Amino acid sequence: MFLFFSRYLNLLLLVSVYAIAVYAESAVSLHAAETTEQVDFNFHIRPILSDRCFACHGPDQEKRQADLRLDIPDQLNQVVDEEAGIHYVVPGKPELSELFRRVDSHDEFEVMPPADSNLTLSEREIDLLKKWIEQGAEWKSHWSFIPLETVEIPEVKQTNWPQSRIDYFVLNRLEKEGLSPSSPVSREQWIRRVSFDLTGLPPTPEEIDTFLNDQSEEAYATVVDRLLASPQYGERMAVDWLDVARYADTYGYQSDVYRAMWPWRDWVIDAFNENLPYDEFITWQLAGDLLPKPSRDQILATAFNRHHRQTNEGGSIEEEFRVEYVSDRTQTYGTAFLGLTLECSKCHDHKYDPITQKEFYQLSSYFNSIDEFGLYSHFTDAVPTPTLMLPEAERASELERLNAGVEQAEQALESIKKSEIASFANWLGKQDSVPSSSDADSQLAEGLIGQFSFDKIQVAEGQGRIDNLADDATFGELKDDPQQVPGFAGQALKFSGENNFSTTVGGDFQRSRPFTISLWMKADRRHERAVIFHRSAAWTDAGSRGYQLLLEEGKLSAGLIHFWPGNAIGIQAKEELPLNQWIHVTLTYDGSSRATGLQLYMDGNLAAVDVVRDKLAKEITGGGATKFALGQRFRDRGFINGEVDELSLYQRAVTPIEIRQLADDHSLTALLKKTSGELTEAERQQLYPYWLVHHSEPFRQQQTQLTSLRKQYCESVDQVAEVMVMKELSEPRTTHVLYRGAYDAPGEAVDRSTPESLPAASPSNRLGLAEWTTSPEHPLTSRVTVNRFWQMFFGQGLVQTPDDFGSQGALPTHPQLLDDLSLRFIKSGWDVKGLLKEIALSATYRQSSQTSKELNVRDPDNELLARGPRFRLSAEMIRDQALYVSGLLVDKRGGPPVKPYQPAGLWKEKSNNVYTREEGEGSHRRSLYTFWKRTSPPPAMITLDAAKRDVCSVKRQTTATPLQALVLLNDVQYVEAARAIAVKTIKKRPDNRADQLTYLFRSLTGRFPEEREIALLQQVYEEQLIEFTSQPERISQLLEQGDEPIDADVPQSEQAAMMVVAQLLLNYDEVVMRR
After folding, report:
1. Which end of the chain is more exposed for a tag (fewer CB within 10 A), N or C?
2. Nearest by Cα to 801 from 955, 949, 958, 957
């Protein structure tokens, strides 16, 4: 994009930079409730100790010096010199207090903090410590860990000012400081302010007029109620929560491909719009899956815990990243709900807060018991488990119908098995002898699609080839020449672990269709892990989609996999495979998608197995794997020195007696040689499944119908979208303290529990943790929540470190107000809309943001709240405002992310694909729905300080850079919006230029312009009109930006001139600032 303006470029830049820089406020900090008369431990002493002492004399046991802790009261009374009566702190006697003596010392070998720490105490801080000791050295728990208590409304002198309970606390503090509140903001500015705060959009001129004309006492409340009831409210509230949840539309790390998490985002919007009580909002997200009979939405809400980054990078260690995901969930929980920096305790005891490393892992154990894999699939688009299926209503109805059909067909097949017993007996009775063994051979060949003996290897074009004895049209290939050795029958293949045999036969086995694979194999060692055969891409590729037979810890294990471990079926033999002898192994599958339908046979006998996994919900094909392979798999451990012979593949489930025949070459034929009268009851039972498969026409027809119905169901369910959620393992995974946080350095095993410094509890699972978190007795949750909602209105919280309510965090500027709001928030039933309404209707919020010289000196950061809030609009609000005022905004809620205008070549350096813009409505949806790629977030949004969302973020940074002004001037989104605003303006007031400019100014600022402002805008318009008239080639260059068609009803020179004025105002400080 390029600049169109010459004469007004400097003006526009200056206006835009001013809009950004005007709020670059001073970092001067006021000490809450500061007084030199009475020293308070939490507000005066703890900050000193935390900042200068706790690193060496605090909670971290490994770094603790002199075995002294200053973060707990017991050690403050510890004896230093019993004979002299000296303790670290002697209440009332600083001269006998070693703490004071050390900080006041001028001896470089005794002074604390020591010289090499580069830390010192000021004279004022030393004096505070002395006064604290003189006044009795009262020790208090950290302020945020103290339970909430009822707060009395303070008295004020200016009794006519408060509009709500909030105002009494604010005014009381102002009066103590000798200050007065600012005058009320104009009604136009108030409705603009509250509209942005509650919906993220400006008010329309019509909405402003309605409010101005309403002189009733309920006028303000009417506006707030309307805004809270609007669907745009939920969208505005969701933006902040997406930052907290580290929401994105891609996985992150190097591949950073798409993942569909937007259904959770839509749930968040709905939850705020429906005013879901906030304790339930927390509970559903932490543990909705554990609620009694959880609804779809309650399970969906738990996707909150799965928004962390994930990787599929080759060579990554699965367990390392799985552990990292658990750690991320724990840290996010701490920041989002407790306002604590738990991540500091991942590697060691917290240096400042009473949270040990053990307690970090006790907390993390709540998030450590879901059936997940540390890597997502590189070769497929399978969703990492556990997941929630999200079928549309029509699809859900279809699946219900198809599933019912499958169940009926299964029941019918079972009925036929019972009803056909008489036909079987009748068939036997009509035979002088059972059919000949030659008939058995032909029936055993039914469904045989692959038979490889490995006796003869042909070499063609340097590649080894083995014929398929069951089908001349297909063959097998050898990679890296496996060795031929004497086998069970003729020659066999011996594998090195790096080579393999592969064939397309069996490459299309699906989960809805039965199949059988049999072979002879010999192992010379007890393999910890070895691939016997598979149809898949790579082990590290989430397990890998397909089917497999492995040796694990010396035991055969088999599985069908969509995504391991949560979308798969798997079994493992109870007994280890005998070594150094030929064993006939058969794997059969009945097409049911159940672990019971997967069976292992060894030497013709059904093997006793343990069910490892039993939830296969989607297809096992795809992912680039189209061949059956023996002996080796990409990024896996091959069958080293393993031998394989006589491989057979069937597209049916071979019956047990046939499997025994394959193993011993006589069991079936021996039975078939007997007459009916010679067969024992046990032998009849062995023959019956064989007879059903080969001779019972009702059974064969029903089996065919069942397979067809299963295929229909599977094909339908494969179309259903999934989203990652939480689902607890049946048995909790053991959690260990990890030395320095390293996944491969496990230490002590820990039980689930919460930090000792907080209310005592040891909930058994995430639901218990959620209930503990939202308990009315919990000191942190409501304080942290209320503080963030306050920040939403005032740009900063009552605690200015919303992510840190610990010792290193800021103190509350109005502690009693915070506690009062927090306690009443709980008592209201965690009513979010009620809380926001109270703040929005307060006199504190209604104050003008105009400052004064006195306030700039005494309270530059507005901590005392002597004036109204003033800060730049968020990146989303600035963009949405431009679209909304221009009429381009598409008012559509929810759905997949959209791809609006972005710079050409975006993503090119980050991935294999380049960003492709979505034409049509996707370019004009609210910013909330913009596609968010972790490694390359929308550049304009990031430039305007949107959070990157790699980690949990509860407050955005505010910067002021020239790039921000350039974005607003040149980004095609804003250029196109300016054109639409210009056309809309001209059409709204076609006959009078001053009326047009007045309408334009009011649409963007919310107020009528002054005469001097109109004069300036008219001058800009007229001069631009002259320039465009004299240089018509510049008009098309400007108007062709964006997809919106050029309006043919308005002269193009007028469009262009008015467009410049619109851009000027889009960059005006009053438009991009929230005052």
Report:
1. N
2. 955
Cα dist. 108→76, 114, 116, 248, 268 in Å?
A: 23, 7, 10, 53, 58
490 located within any domain: yes
Nearest CA-CA partner of 57 in 102, 3, 105: 102
First-to-last alpha carbon distance for the chain, in angstroms, is: 31
pLDDT (average), residues 695-703: 97
Check which CATH number belongs to the domain holding 479 and give it: 2.60.120.200
Give me the percent of the chain exceeding a pLDDT of 70.
95
pLDDT tens column, 76-114:
777 877 777 778 889 999 899 888 889 998 888 889 999
Q: Is the dihedral of CA 981, 983, 989, 995 positive or negative?
A: positive
Among 940, 959, 978, smallest CA distance to 1058 is for 978
Candidates 453, 714, 712; CA nearest to 560 is 714
Burial of 995 (0-12, 13-18, 19+ CB in 10 A): middle
**Element at 570 (helix H, strand E):** strand 567-573
Per-residue pLDDT of 981-1034, as tens digits, reads 999 999 998 889 999 999 999 999 999 999 999 999 999 999 999 999 999 999
> Would you say 98 and 129 are in contact if contact means Cβ atoms under 8 Å apart?
no
- The residues, any chain, with a CB within 8 Å of residue 740's CB and separated by 6 or more, are 347, 348
Which of the listed residues 94, 111, 139 is the one where a domain comes to its end? 139
Note whether residue 49 is domain-resident.
Answer: yes
pLDDT at 11: 43
Quickly count helices (H) and strands (E) in the chain. 37, 26
pLDDT number for residue 892: 96
Same domain, 620 and 759: no
Torsional sign, CA 719, 722, 728, 731: positive
Confidence of residue 609 (pLDDT cuts 50, 70, 90): very high
> What letter would DSSP give residue 292?
S
- Token digits for 457? 């290897």
Are the C-beta atoms of 175 and 158 separated by less than 8 Å? Answer: yes
Of the three residues 139, 155, 183, the one that is the final residue of a domain is: 139
- Are 18 and 65 members of one domain? no
Q: Which helix (H) or strand (E) holds 548?
A: strand 546-552
Q: What are phi and psi of 556, to 5 degrees?
A: -70, 135
pLDDT band at 910 (very low <50, low <70, confident <90, very high): confident
Confidence grade of residue 5 (pLDDT, cut at 50, 70, 90): very low
Is 13 in the same domain as 127?
no
727 and 601 share a domain? Answer: no
pLDDT of residue 540: 64
Is residue 965 one of the residues assigned to a domain?
A: no
* Closest C-alpha among 68, 59, 145 to residue 345: 59
Amino acid at 1005: T
- Alpha-carbon distance 208 to 31, whole Å? 39
**What is the pLDDT, as a whole number, of residue 75?**
77
pLDDT at 430 exceeding the cut of 80: no
Same domain, yes or no, for 357 and 452?
no
Q: How confident is the model at residue 431 (pLDDT cuts 50, 70, 90)?
A: low
The whole-number pLDDT of residue 729 equals 95
Same domain, 69 and 18: no
Query: Is 829 contained in some domain?
Result: no
Into how many domains does the chain fold?
4
Q: What is the value of pTM for the model shown?
A: 0.92
Domain co-membership, 483 together with 335: no
> What is the predicted pLDDT for the residue at 435?
57
Contact 200, 236 (CB under 8 A): yes
Contacts of 337 (CB under 8 A, 6+ apart): 282, 286, 773, 780, 781, 784
pLDDT confidence of residue 1: 37
Q: Are residues 620 and 515 in the same domain?
A: yes
The parent domain of residue 1034 ranges over: 9-22+970-1074
Return the pLDDT at 919.
86
